[in-house]
Write a sequence for this structure.
């Protein structure tokens, strides 16, 4: 499946996107930080996901799916970014 | 008084009379300042039914009790009037350095009434206040006006001015301060233009009295630490500014594209915050006492010349980009610079052009009317329409009325993406139900900063954006707290790290007013209800708390929100009930009594 990085995770990975395989979100994240160690601190706080990390599967936050246990399909797009905000106050 | 300066400056441009009035302490406590206090005065003093361009309309520049203090990001003021775009109350908010200067000159509010026979500007230098001729500045852009007035007054003066759009009464003209900062929405600049008031120059040297200095310093430091350690305010916004949201919102499938026909834009990456940071960014820019520094100084290569300016912000990139199907970031940035220079709201400009493009695609508009073909993705057409709109030339004269009047004139009112005649910003509410209810109920028309539920629905992902359950309560909480933040004079972005518990000790230490948790949020609720009463008095009703038919009837066709429309009616009934309003959206007498609004 396609992994897409935005903002700070893009900086840390040095990539816009890449292709990676994995059965679940947890699998993919472990493979990801193993290959790109600079990403670890952006994704994990110790062994847990950072509270401000956002992971979307085809645009849907994994919080509304099965979290790290969410099953993946080869055609999925995973988007990973740290919390950001906008609007024009 | 502490926090508040205790004085209102009132200038009548018809008579030339200048007066200074004592700020009523109870009113200040009840309505806090800035947005709240100015709204109370507008409600009390503006005769119902007054036309926005009538000299009787008031134009109020209003700082809050924390504005200009050392409180984190307390650099804001509001411009309050009756809007020529919506006919509803307008409270447009801006930051920078000017807002604090109003306080340093000794005032909480500057109320402008009447209309000058000739172009003038107001020169406020502490106690000394003069109405001066602005003939030399009329017809000039914002930057040149700023330079000319500082040359005539004081190089350290901070300037509020309108550009050509305000002079030409473009219904979505904004007021610009500090050359690049905009109170951009709802046409407050057009009201300023209608009064022949080109600018207000302010220079002040007075301090702001703080009731309890030690407690204030402690609260400031505590809040500063929270701001700096918060993921959004400490890293997200400083690193990329607001433009980072382009890819994020597009990934959620709710980046409105081609006049809200789609929720995903194929050109998002080209206009993203990441691309802006890589190709155009010169440096960050912050407002007074703000550690966030979300502003972006950018530089473009335009027609062989290097040109530098501020922005574009996320909303502008979207309106001038995805909304019109345009993926040329340099052109979008150029149009944004022009909007700053003309003093024109880029959100309404972009969405009005997008509406015109759809009318053109439908064959309702032809080249005969528009002068040039209008197609999604055509940046040059947007550029030309920007200039024509600001100057009200040719078809631009129609665009200058905004999308609601444009679509109405051509018999297709449903193609205006607006509520209460003000255009929506950059989040398709079919995939974020709370913001849909927010657009519908916003007291100033389609708007994200009256109730930014995107913070909970998307940024923090604390609630499911696709469900409507619980969104009425969420929105009410956000709306009321936003009233507080806008009224104390702090930036809305602080709310990504600070809550009522953080604002309360700061406000109490500064003012000594003794707010409680309950009374502070009740003040926010009071302000919201007062704005509602203003709109009801002007003839608005439940039918105005609605959304464009497209958002209610046409489901999104792709992305995670595929198949969704906004479930407005159910949310609206619950919203009215929780607000203590009747089924037509009128506050009950019990509610008015509880809020001291009877």
């Amino acid at each position: 499946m396609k992994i897409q990085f935005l903002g700070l995770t893009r900086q840390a990975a040095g990539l816009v996107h890449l292709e990676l395989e994995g059965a679940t979100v947890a699998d993919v994240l472990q493979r990801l930080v193993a290959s790109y160690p600079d990403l670890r601190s952006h994704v994990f706080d110790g062994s847990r996901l950072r509270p401000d990390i956002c992971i979307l599967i085809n645009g849907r936050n994994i919080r509304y799916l099965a979290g790290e246990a969410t099953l993946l399909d080869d055609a999925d797009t995973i988007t990973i970014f740290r919390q950001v905000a906008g609007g024009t106050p | 008084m502490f926090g508040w300066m205790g004085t209102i400056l009132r200038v009548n441009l018809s008579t030339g009379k200048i007066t200074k009035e004592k700020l009523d302490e109870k009113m200040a406590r009840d309505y806090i300042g800035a947005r709240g206090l100015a709204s109370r005065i507008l409600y009390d003093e503006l005769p119902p039914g007054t036309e926005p361009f009538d000299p009787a309309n008031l134009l109020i520049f209003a700082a809050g009790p924390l504005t200009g203090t050392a409180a984190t990001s307390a650099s804001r003021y509001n411009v309050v009037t009756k809007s020529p775009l919506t006919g509803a109350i307008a409270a447009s908010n801006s930051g920078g350095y000017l807002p604090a200067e109003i306080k340093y000159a000794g005032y909480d509010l500057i109320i402008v009434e009447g209309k000058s026979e000739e172009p003038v500007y107001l020169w406020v230098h502490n106690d000394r206040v003069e109405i001066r001729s602005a003939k030399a500045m009329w017809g000039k852009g914002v930057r040149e006006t700023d330079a000319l007035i500082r040359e005539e007054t004081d190089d350290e003066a901070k300037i509020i001015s309108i550009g050509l759009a305000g002079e030409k009464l473009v219904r979505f003209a904004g007021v610009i301060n500090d050359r690049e900062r905009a109170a951009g929405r709802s046409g407050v600049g057009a009201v300023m233009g209608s009064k022949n008031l080109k600018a207000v120059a302010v220079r002040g040297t007075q301090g702001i009295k703080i009731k309890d200095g030690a407690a204030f310093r402690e609260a400031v430091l505590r809040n500063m630490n929270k701001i700096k350690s918060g993921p959004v305010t400490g890293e997200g916004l400083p690193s990329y500014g607001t433009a980072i949201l382009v890819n994020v919102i597009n990934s959620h499938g709710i980046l409105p594209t081609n006049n809200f026909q789609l929720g995903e834009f194929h050109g998002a990456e080209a206009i993203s915050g990441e691309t802006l940071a890589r190709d155009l960014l010169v440096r960050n820019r912050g407002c007074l006492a703000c550690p966030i520094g979300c502003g972006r100084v950018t530089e473009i290569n335009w027609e062989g010349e290097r040109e530098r300016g501020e922005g574009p912000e996320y909303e502008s990139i979207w309106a001038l980009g995805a909304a019109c199907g345009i993926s040329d970031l340099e052109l979008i940035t150029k149009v944004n610079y022009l909007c700053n220079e003309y003093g024109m709201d880029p959100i309404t400009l972009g969405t009005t052009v997008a509406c015109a493009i759809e009318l053109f695609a439908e064959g309702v508009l032809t080249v005969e009317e528009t002068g040039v073909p209008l197609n999604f993705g055509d940046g040059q057409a947007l550029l030309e329409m920007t200039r024509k709109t600001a100057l009200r030339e040719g078809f631009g004269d129609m665009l200058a009325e905004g999308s609601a009047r444009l679509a109405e004139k051509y018999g297709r009112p449903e193609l205006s993406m607006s509520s209460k005649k003000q255009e929506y910003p950059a989040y398709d509410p079919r995939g974020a139900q709370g913001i849909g209810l927010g657009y519908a109920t916003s007291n100033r028309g389609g708007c994200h900063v009256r109730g930014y539920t995107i913070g909970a629905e998307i940024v923090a992902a604390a609630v499911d954006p696709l469900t409507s359950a619980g969104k009425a309560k969420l929105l009410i909480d956000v709306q009321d707290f936003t009233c507080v933040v806008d009224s104390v004079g702090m930036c809305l972005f602080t709310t990504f790290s600070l809550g009522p518990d953080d604002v309360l000790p700061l406000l109490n230490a500064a003012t000594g007013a003794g707010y409680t948790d309950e009374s502070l949020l009740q003040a926010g609720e009071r302000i919201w209800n007062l704005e509602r009463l203003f709109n009801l008095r002007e003839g608005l009703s439940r039918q105005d708390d609605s959304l464009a038919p497209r958002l209610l009837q046409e489901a999104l066709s792709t992305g995670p929100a595929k198949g969704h429309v906004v479930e407005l009616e159910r949310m609206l009934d619950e919203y009215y009930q929780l607000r203590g309003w009747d089924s037509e959206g009128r506050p009950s007498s019990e509610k008015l009594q509880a809020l001291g609004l009877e």
Helices of chain A lie at 8-13, 25-35, 40-43. Residues 24 and 70 of chain A are 5 Å apart (CA to CA). Strands of chain A lie at 2-5, 17-19, 44-45, 48-49, 53-57, 60-61, 77-82. The longest strand of chain A covers residues 77-82.
